[in-house]
Design a protein that fits this description.
Helix content: 25-40%
CATH topology: Rossmann fold
Number of helices: 7
Largest sheet: 5 strands, parallel
Low-confidence stretches: none
Shape: globular
Distance between the termini: 48 Å
């Protein structure tokens, strides 16, 4: 079945992964509807990147949803607690880090699911990755499979036979592979941000988990990261 013209909701954070997924969905010919979230994150500069990415693509509509997850706490991304910093990816722990936002992807996917149903779309894209990632439980293949199954049990579209698909084209790629794929599709990574603790103006810290994984990816890809760092 041709994908050209089929409506798809793309979760667009403004980061490296979601920018790549947006480009991949665009390349496949989907009619794009992007959704971003202002959820009380300390690194809200990512929303500026999401707006720029959506504006420069073929996105038909870009929705920004406000949710106050900071009122719940539980993460250094939504509170005044210090974001952990390291000098190398070798220092990253195998434990779930304090930057994990409780149930964030479940909440985001639920909003995307609702909008997809309104749009009569059966495709949702999310840039989760289970290789070069921080260990978040809601980035794993088994989580995505479970959410997709739930979505098709819980929606009018699903029980009517219009099966919804959660696309995770990056889930088994290394960060270097993601970057190379994005470059081949013309993604301008200078207009993305990955930093959890950027300085005013959006300059990346270079030492949070996300910055270190991003820098490792660019190094392994043999490409200079165009993002500014402290």
């Amino acid at each position: 079945m041709s994908l050209a013209g089929r409506k798809a909701v793309v979760l667009l954070s403004g980061g490296l992964d979601s920018a790549t997924v947006l480009a991949m969905a665009e390349f496949d010919g989907f009619s794009l509807y992007a959704m971003s979230f202002s959820y009380g994150q300390c690194h809200a500069v990512e929303l500026d990147c999401a707006r720029a990415l959506a504006a420069e693509s073929s996105v038909i509509e870009h929705r920004e949803v406000e949710i106050d997850l900071s009122s719940l706490g539980g993460s250094t991304l939504t509170t005044d607690a210090a974001v952990p910093k390291h000098d190398s990816v070798d220092e990253l722990s195998d434990e779930i880090p304090s930057t994990y936002v409780p149930a964030r992807n479940t909440i985001f996917l639920s909003y995307a699911l609702a909008w997809a149903e309104v749009l009569k779309a059966t495709d949702i894209f999310i840039g989760v990755n289970a290789l070069d990632y921080s260990g978040y439980p809601d980035c794993r293949p088994e989580y995505i499979a479970a959410f997709e199954e739930m979505a098709n049990l819980a929606t009018a579209a699903g029980v009517s036979g219009n099966r919804l698909v959660i696309h995770t084209p990056l889930i088994h790629l290394t960060k270097a592979e993601i970057i190379k794929r994005g470059i081949s599709l013309g993604v301008d990574y200078g207009k993305t941000t990955s930093c959890y603790d950027p300085a005013p103006g959006g300059v990346a810290c270079g030492h949070c988990d996300s910055c270190l994984l991003r820098l490792k990816g660019f190094s392994e890809a043999g490409i200079v990261d165009p993002r500014r760092y402290k």
